[in-house]
Amino acid sequence: MHLVTVGLNHKTAPVEVRECLTFSGDHLAEGMLNLVRRPHVREGVILSTCNRTEVYGAVDALHAGVREITGFLRSCLKQPDLPLEEYLYTLSDLEVVQHLFSVAAGLDSMILGEAQILGQVKNAFHLALERGAVALHLGKLFRHAVEVGKRVRTETEIGESAVSVSYAAVELARKIFGE
Description:
CATH architecture: 2-Layer Sandwich
Oligomer: single chain
Number of domains: 1
Shape: globular
Number of helices: 7
Strand order of the largest sheet: 2-3-1-4
CATH class: Alpha Beta
C-alpha cells in the first residue's frame, strides 16, 4: 500500500486555475465516494480550500493510483480543456506524511500559521470518515496530522501573526496609508 497526494495550490497554480478545481458541500462528499470507487484507490480524502485542492489516497499500486487520481481530478475540472497536469504536483509515501503535517500546522499556507487550515483538514477527514472513504492508512495519517497541527498551535507562536490573507492586506494598507 502506498500513500499519494495529487494536487495544486497557491504555489503551483494561479487563482483562475484553482477556481476550476474546487469541491464543496455535496460535491465534495460525492467526489470522495467516486474517488474510492477507482480500481487502485483504497482510501481517499479531498482537501479543497480557496488556496488548494489536494487528493490524498491510499493506493495499492503507486503509478496506477496516481494515474487514477489525476484522471479523477481531470474529470472534475470545470474547464475540461485546461492543461491541468502542468499545475499538479504528486507526492508519495513519506513525502505525503511530511506535506500533510506541514499543511495542518499552517506551514504550507499563503500566510504562515493560518488558523483555518487545521479546521479544514479536520472537516475533510471527518467527511471522508462519514462516507466510508478512509480506513486504516489515511485514518491514522489524518489523526496524527490533526494532533501535529494542534500541538504546533499550542506549543509555538506560529498563530501570533496575521491569520488570513485579508487580515494581512488590511494590516499592510494600515502601514501604508495610516488609519
